[in-house]
Design brief:
The protein contains 14 helices and ten strands. It is an alpha/beta fold.
């Protein structure tokens, strides 16, 4: 029998056994794939004495695993990227509400679920990049990306990408389904190529001249400022950036967040961990370790992140935006956004 790559990954993931439950342990299921997060876990253990057992995998595989494990799941905390995945986990019944004065005080209301099933702990601005040599007047709003003048010039990821799903859901929230459909259709007409690759590949498209406008999350570019990213860093002076909608709603923000698993055997430790993620020390590390914006206001930014400049962020309630993700997916299908 031949397994597909995704099926093989699921089998390997399922074959990893977690240690038995214990009072001083915490079982984390995480789809964050950053080596720099190791410091978050080790610092928490140093501060609390709680041992962390971690299972890492793709978000969809982790959600499927938790669903299959049901009431016997050892998962205490789910960590994943983007509002769309957090919302899906909630809708699948995989998370539980958390009543924490610390989280309520530290995490802005728009960055947490309306029923406290999940909380955002770091942010990434979804912004517009452009080729300085060829673009004199870059688009300044998301809606500008549909301008026919940009035909054949835009690089952007596929409709299956969670960042794009949440961006379109936010446009539905702000402008309504009809306007959002017109926008998505316009962007499809302006694509320089069929959607391909990740956010870094959209930036590479600017450097190579394949496109003149690109959409990417901020931390991919900030990472290229801080360290060597192939195909971007050596030519990074050719790339300009715009935080969209500064005279309107503000730049759209994607989340990385977490929630306590519905059947967490170590619930108290799980809540402690979420509260730790909202601490200044952890929030600073999200920025310095992975070039993200902290969720907690006033926390110092890494130099690479600060270089992007100050901007107005969209403060729409992302829990409300999550309700429009199914509509966004329908729109993508209607307009043929691959």
């Amino acid at each position: 029998m031949t397994l597909t790559k995704s099926a093989l990954a699921a089998v390997l993931l399922a074959s990893v056994a977690l240690p038995a439950f214990a009072e001083g342990e915490l079982n984390i299921y995480s789809s964050r794939h950053y080596d720099t997060d190791e410091k978050l876990y080790s610092d928490f253990t140093e501060q609390t004495g709680i041992t962390i057992n971690r299972i890492e995998g793709k978000a969809d595989e982790l959600l499927a695993r938790m669903q299959a494990e049901g009431a016997n799941s050892p998962a205490d905390v789910l960590i994943t990227v983007d509002t769309s995945r957090l919302s899906r986990a909630k809708n699948m019944g995989l998370l539980q509400s958390v009543d924490s004065d610390i989280l309520e005080e530290r995490i802005p209301a728009n960055l947490q679920d309306n029923e406290n099933d999940w909380f955002g702990f770091s942010q990434r601005a979804r912004i517009i990049f452009y080729a300085k040599d060829t673009v004199d007047s870059p688009p300044v709003t998301y809606l500008d990306l549909a301008d026919p003048a940009l035909k054949g010039k835009v690089c952007i990821r596929s409709s299956s990408n969670e960042y794009n799903q949440t961006l379109l859901a936010a446009i539905v929230t702000h402008h309504g389904e009809e306007k959002a459909t017109e926008w998505a259709q316009g962007v499809v007409g302006n694509m320089a190529r069929s959607p391909q690759g990740g956010d870094t590949d959209q930036l590479r498209g600017l450097v190579s001249g394949e496109c003149e406008i690109a959409v990417s999350n901020s931390y991919y570019f900030a990472r290229a400022l801080r360290t060597d990213v192939d195909g971007v860093s050596t030519e990074i002076d050719k790339i300009g950036w715009i935080f969209p909608d500064q005279d309107g709603n503000g730049a759209h923000m994607n989340l990385s967040g977490a929630g306590v698993a519905a059947n967490a055997p170590n619930r108290e430790n799980a809540v402690k961990f979420l509260e730790y993620l909202s601490s200044d020390s952890a929030q600073v590390y999200f920025s310095s370790g992975n070039d993200e914006f902290p969720a907690v206001k006033g926390v110092a930014l890494a130099e690479s992140v600060a270089k992007l400049g100050e901007f107005k962020a969209d403060e729409v309630n992302l829990s409300d935006v999550a309700q429009n993700i199914p509509t966004a997916q329908k729109i993508f299908d209607v307009v043929g956004w691959k």
